[in-house]
Each structure stands twice: as structure tokens, then as C-alpha cells.
Amino acid sequence: MSLYAMSDWRVIAQYRVGMRAEFLTTVPILGARALSERKRLFNARCSLPSSFPRGSVMPTVGDYIERNRERLVAQYAEEVGQLPSARGLSYNEVIDTLPEFLDTLVKISHTGKREGLSEIALRLEETHLNLRLRLGFKLEEVTKEFVLLSRIIAELWQQRPLKERPAPEDVQLLTDQLQVFIDKAVEVFSGYSREEYQAEKHYLHRLNKLSTRLTEDPPSLATLGARLEPLVEVVQEAVQAAGAALFLADDKGQWLSAPTTCGLAAEPDQPVSLASSTFVAEIAAEESPVYLPDARYADNRVSAQARQSGLNSLLGLRLYPHGKLLGVLYVGTPHVQLFEPRTKRQLHMLVDYLAGVIERARLLAEVQQGRNRLQLLLDSAGEGIYGIDGEGRCTFANPACVKLLGYDSSADLIGQFMHDLIHHTKENGEPYPAEECPLLQTARQGKPFRSEAELLWRADGTSFYADQRASPMYEEGRLIAAVVTFVDVSARRRAEAERQALLEQTRQAVSAREETVRIVSHDLRSPLSAIQLSAGLLIRDSASYEQGHRVRRQAKLIQQSTHRMQRLIDDLTDFGNIEAGTLAISLAPHDPSALVHEATEELREAAEKKV
């Protein structure tokens, strides 16, 4: 009784290589003839049949398959029968065309060629695949069958000595044939042929080369659309369309930019609102491809240029990586037609790849834009700005820094130890040790530094004073460098010195004037005191003089004049006190009639003389 005729094939299928214990446990279940067959298979496992001439000619793959045919079928039935879709199937449904298929592999191995025999094997496989489709097998399960078959065939000689193994080219012939079967299974189950796979690889390779150029020479955000035109042309060619158009979305997701077109595609050079009811706005809102049967009669959905472009049927898909709209792309044909599933699948694949390219290109463009703005900021800054790493070497320097230090270009500074270039000598002429340099401490220890008058040295050996600041730079919490800014304060220091000199001159002048006032006041007070004393004596003795009343009046006028002179001297002293900020004001009651009387008396004398 052969294994093919046994009714209890599932018990036989439990047999595994080298599992003698399992064999013994199945004895009560099997009949005598089945047991005999089981023993024969077990003894044949992993060993050449006695009929094979040992040591004569290297065995072929076909020899091993031919002499272990039943064992291969049994092990295949056992392992395939465990697949979810194989449960409940009969033995014949599980093995299907495997015996005939193995016979074909034997013939291919013995003849050393696949011509003619390969077609027979493919027809057997097609029969097998059609059965698997009807039984509800998945592609993964079908491909696993062929992987399993390749493994259990190879196990026949893996433990054999090298001279008893098949030739490598014979094994390669087997694996090539099994790979053809797997490719055929993929084509039958997915409608995806190897030719299509190769074509997609070709177009992906072209897109990859074009995207590499974008990476090596990043476009600006303004020129990104124009730089993407070659990639759009590849997509158009891949799906055999007559035209294609790509619209990029803005950062806020409100507008689609003026499109990049190729082939017959034509669109107005203006943005499209995503809130509109246009065809491209509809594409942006849908996850699946959007189909427009005839653009010529879609007045409200497409532009006039698109209606007149010569493209009729349109198929569009959005670019939506990581849940963010990047844009939309549509392709078109000059005829009214449906698009094949293969075309939709290819468009999906290419658009997904294109979305990744655009996302990367946009990020690079934004990074480049940020660098350009930073460089513009550095170039336009009036302060000298440079960076140093932890070793104190210059990493960048702006034009103001280069100019202030007297060099020709930043290349003269980058990579140089800045302390030795610009900070090497103290004001007194002594060397400035690098370990004492506060800028290096900022770069190495993160200590900020500020000096309003730091001595720096130019390329020509001259020096200048600078207002200098150093700030540490951190990356993810790690100290990596320091940024130094400085301005030349030599002119400011000269102006300050001149101001101090003028101030000192002013102080000396004021001091001299105060001394003069003090001397004058002292020298004037003495004669005034004598005059005032004499006037007082005249007033006292006026009664003894002829015209005594006249003498008395004149003496009083002299006395009043000396009082005014005394007040003028006091006022001059007070003026000096005002400038010095030491004037003390005393408030006291005063009779205004005395002032009026004094003024009247002074004017009386002048009036009488005129009369």
C-alpha cells in the first residue's frame, strides 16, 4: 500500500526526520502495511538508498528527489496541512499536483536544462495556483509552500559528505526554477508580474537619481517646483500618460501653488484654493485616486487651460506623507478611458516615493534658507563675530571680524587657535598664557565672559581695545563651543580720554576762578570796611561841621554804597557756591519800605544835581 492510497494520511504526515520516539507512539494507530511503509520511509531518511552506487558519480538533485519522492510528499502534506487555509482539506487537495511537479523537477535535473520542461512545470503550477485561489489560500501561504519545498529537498543532502552532494550548478537550477514558480504565484495572486516589478524598479531608480541631485544641490523654496519637473516627467512616462501636473501645498494647507506641468498638461500660473470645488482641491481631500472621465466638459472643476490642453481623462492622487498634505498630482490621457488597476497601483507607488523626495527637498530648502538668513545676519552685523570649539580653534568668522582683525578672508582664521592670533600678549607686554584666557574657559567650562576693554592684536602686529563678550553654545545639553562678539572701542576710549582732559581743564579753570573770587572778595572787603567806618565817623561828627546836615546826608550815601558793594561781593561768593552746589539759603522777615527808602535816597541826590 503506497502513501497515496492510505486513508489515514494525516497520521502518516506526522512523521518527522529523526523523531524515532514519535514513530513508536504512532504504532497502535497505524495498520501493519502503513507501519511497514512508515519504517521504510524512516530508514530511508537522510541516507542514500542501497541501490545508489556510493563513491561512483556525484548524485544529482533529481536522484535525491526520485529516491525520496514519497517522503517529500509526506513531509510536504504534514507542514502544508498546518496552514490555516488548508484545514479541513482532503489529502489530495493538499498535495494537489506535487507528485507530477516533483517528476518534472527530476527531469530538469537529469537533463540539465529547463527548456520545454519548465513550461510543463509552469502549467502544473498554474493548475495548483488556481486550486489554491478557489480554496481561499493567501499569497503568503502559497509562497510558503514553495519555500517549504525548497527546504525539505535541500535537507536530503545537507548532512551528507561533500562528495555525495549535488553539484552547485544543479542546485542552482533547482532554486532558479522554484523562484520562477514564486514569481508566478505573486503574479497570479496580485496581478503583479515580474515585468511590472522590473519596470517599477527602473522608474524608481530614475527617480532616485534625480532626487540625489536635489540633495546634492538643494533648491530654494521658490525654485522647488521648477526643479521637480524632471521627476514629474518620469511619473508621466511610467504610467504611460500624455501629461501630468504637480501642485504643491503651502505650509498652512490653504493653497496649492502654481503647478509644475509636463506633456500636454496645462494650468494657469496661479495658486488654487483648497476650499474651492475644483478637481485638484477634490484630489487633496480624498485618500483614494480621483478619476475625472472627461475634462472637456468639467467647466466648474478644471481650468480653461486644462480643458483645452488635449487631456481628457484625468487621474489624480494626493501627496500625503505622515498625515500632512504636501500637494497633489494628476496624470491624463488624450482619450476618454478608464485607468487600469495596474496604472493606479503604479501611480500610488510613484506618488508615495515622490512625496518622500519632495518632503526631503523641502526640508533641505528650509535648512538652506535658514543658513542663508543666518549668513546674511552675520555678514551684515557691524560687530565682529566668530566661534571657537572646545580646543579654541575658529569655526566661523563674519566679515566684520575679519576686517577688524586685519585679515583678508575668513579662511585665514578658520581652524586657527584664536588665542595665539589675537590674544597672545598683555597690555604690559608680557605673554598671555592660554590657560588664563577667559574665552577658552567659556568654550571649555561654559563660563560667560564680558570685558569692556580687552586688548586684541591685529594681523599686522598692532593692537586695539575691544568691548568683548563670550557666550557658551550647547547642543542637547552638551557644551560644544563658544560664540565671541566684539567691537573696536579705540575711538571711544580716545574720545573718553579727550573728555576727561577737557573736564580736568574745566575743573582747573573753575578752581582758578574761585581762587580769584576769593582773593578779590578778601581784597575788596578791607577798603570797604575802612570806607564804611569813615562814613560812620562823619555821620557821628556831622553836627560839628558847617553844613552838618549836608555832610551827614553825603556820609549816609557813602555808607549805603558800601553796603551795596558788600552785597555784590557776597553775591559773587554765592555764585561760586551755586556752581559748587554749596549755597545755603536762609529765610528771614524783611521790611520792603527800607528798600524803597534806600532807593529813594540814592535817586534823590542824582535828581538834585540835575536840578
Automatic annotation (TrEMBL):
Keywords: ATP-binding, Kinase, Membrane, Nucleotide-binding, Transferase, Transmembrane, Transmembrane helix, Two-component regulatory system. It is a multi-pass membrane protein. It catalyses: ATP + protein L-histidine = ADP + protein N-phospho-L-histidine. InterPro entries: BphY/WalK/GraS-like, GAF, GAF-like_dom_sf, His_kinase_dom, HisK_dim/P_dom, HisK_dim/P_sf, PAS, PAS-assoc_C. GO terms for cellular component: membrane. SUPFAM superfamilies: GAF domain-like (SSF55781), Homodimeric domain of signal transducing histidine kinase (SSF47384), PYP-like sensor domain (PAS domain) (SSF55785). The keyword Membrane applies. PROSITE patterns: HIS_KIN, PAC, PAS. Residues 370-423 form the PAS domain. Coiled coil: none annotated. One of its GO terms (biological process) is regulation of DNA-templated transcription. Gene3D superfamilies: 1.10.287.130, 3.30.450.40, PAS domain (3.30.450.20). Its EC number is 2.7.13.3. It is an enzyme of class 2 (transferase). It is found in: Membrane. Residues 519-611 form the Histidine kinase domain. The keyword Transferase applies. GO terms for molecular function: ATP binding; phosphorelay response regulator activity; phosphorelay sensor kinase activity; protein kinase activator activity. CDD domains: HisKA, PAS. Residues 449-501 form the PAC domain. Pfam families: GAF_2 (PF13185), HisKA (PF00512), PAS (PF00989). PANTHER family: SENSOR HISTIDINE KINASE GLRK (PTHR42878:SF7), TWO-COMPONENT HISTIDINE KINASE (PTHR42878). This is histidine kinase. It comes from Alkalilimnicola ehrlichii.
